[in-house]
Design a protein that fits this description.
Blueprint (H helix, E strand, L loop, with lengths): L1 E5 L6 H9 L8 E4 L9 H14 L2 E4 L9 H8 L7 E4 L2 E6 L15 H11 L5 E4 L20 H10 L3 E3 L8 E5 L2 E5 L7 E7 L3 E7 L1
Parallel strand pairs: 1-2, 2-3, 5-6, 6-7, 7-9
Antiparallel strand pairs: 1-10, 4-5, 8-9, 10-11
Length: 214
């Protein structure tokens, strides 16, 4: 399975059009978007941002980020692409979605307590499932800020370690573009698409990841 992974678009519809125009979605079996589709914008903006990807006709699943407007989840639900607090099965792969972030100092729109994060994962995850999460797991390269602080979710990290999740696709921390590992778990933060970053993930016997830029 070939996965095009995107995160942190922050309303830059032009970057999505550029990506689609370059044919980068054409060969993907699946497109995963880990949220912050808008920059505190609403559902209509999210629709405008995602429209070029939707028109390609590939399977798309997304969660909302902490900076997406209150009505963004409703629009994503109507489009049939929302996977927050649910599980989807794509061929042999199951994916569980986790939107928003753990609490931040900025009191953004969608913030969940660690107990709420744990609850989403416990309710939906089955052995072998991937996780699509806006917030990265705590104490990894994917949650390391420029100031040297780790700000990811401790509940997500604990869940990953307990259940040996094969793949976690995340975002949220713009400067933490990386491929990291927690034991056997591959953690991918593609980097923000508003800066032209994306990731190409190939899942076969082993998971291979290429971090790319437009």
């Amino acid at each position: 399975m070939d996965i095009l992974a995107l995160t942190d678009i922050h309303g830059r519809a032009g970057k999505v059009r550029e990506l689609v125009g370059a044919g980068l979605a054409d060969d993907a079996d699946l497109v995963l978007v880990t949220g912050d589709i808008t920059n505190f914008g609403g559902g209509n903006e999210a629709l405008n941002v995602l429209k070029p990807l939707l028109e390609v006709g590939r399977r798309i699943y997304t969660v909302f980020g902490n900076c997406d407007g209150r009505d963004v989840p409703k629009v994503l639900e109507e489009l049939g692409v929302l996977v927050h607090n649910r599980r989807v099965q794509i061929d042999e792969v199951g994916i569980v979605g986790l939107g928003g972030s753990n609490p931040t100092p900025f009191r953004t729109i969608w913030e969940l307590s660690e107990d709420e994060i744990r609850g989403v994962l416990v309710r939906n995850h089955r052995p072998g499932d991937f996780i699509l999460s806006h917030v990265p797991p705590y104490g990894t390269k994917a949650d390391l800020t420029r100031s040297g602080l780790h700000v990811g979710s401790r509940a997500l990290r604990e869940f990953i370690e307990e259940h040996r999740v094969p793949l976690v696709v995340t975002g949220h921390i713009h400067e933490a573009r990386t491929v990291d590992r927690l034991g056997e778990t591959v953690i991918v933060n593609p980097g923000p698409l508003f800066r032209g970053y994306y990731a190409w993930i190939t899942v076969k016997d082993e998971t291979e990841v290429e971090l790319e830029r437009l």
